[in-house]
Amino acid sequence: MTRMHIHVGVADLDASIAFYSALFAAAPTVRKPDYAKWMLDDPRVNFAISHEHAALGIEHLGIEAESPEELQEVYARLERAQRPVLEEGCTTCCYARSEKSWIADPDGVQWEAFHTSGAETTYGNPAMAAPLNPEPIRAAP
């Protein structure tokens, strides 16, 4: 079963952790000096925030697969979408070891498809994060 992924860039990590912990009624599953992540089951989402690695606002959306086989099914969906796909492959990002690819919708909204296979001690390569569109997704004023 896949899980929705949302990554948001924040200005004040501690204030945002307090806010989202109250909103989700749960502490982060992962907490680092520049990053926090909640793996929620209701709603089923991998919700991450970071300070220093992303512009403020929604940075990208994604679909997280629970197995390599499920990831191949998601990759097939990306191909059917008939948009350019950036195959990043095995990488380290967000303190995790993952395999991933990226696609952008017709309006430039970035989507990441990935499977995480383990934890890492570093954030990874922020230059690869959200490679298809340098502008974050922002709510209308």
Automatic annotation (TrEMBL):
Q: Which domain of life is it from?
A: Bacteria
Q: Which residues form the VOC domain?
A: 2-116
What is the name listed in the Swiss-Prot or TrEMBL entry for this protein? Glyoxalase
One Pfam family hit: Glyoxalase
For this protein, the record's PROSITE patterns field holds: VOC (PS51819)
Q: Which Gene3D superfamilies match?
A: 2,3-Dihydroxybiphenyl 1,2-Dioxygenase, domain 1
Q: Which InterPro entries match?
A: ArsI/CadI-like, Cadmium-induced_rsp, Glyas_Bleomycin-R_OHBP_Dase, Glyas_Fos-R_dOase_dom, VOC_core
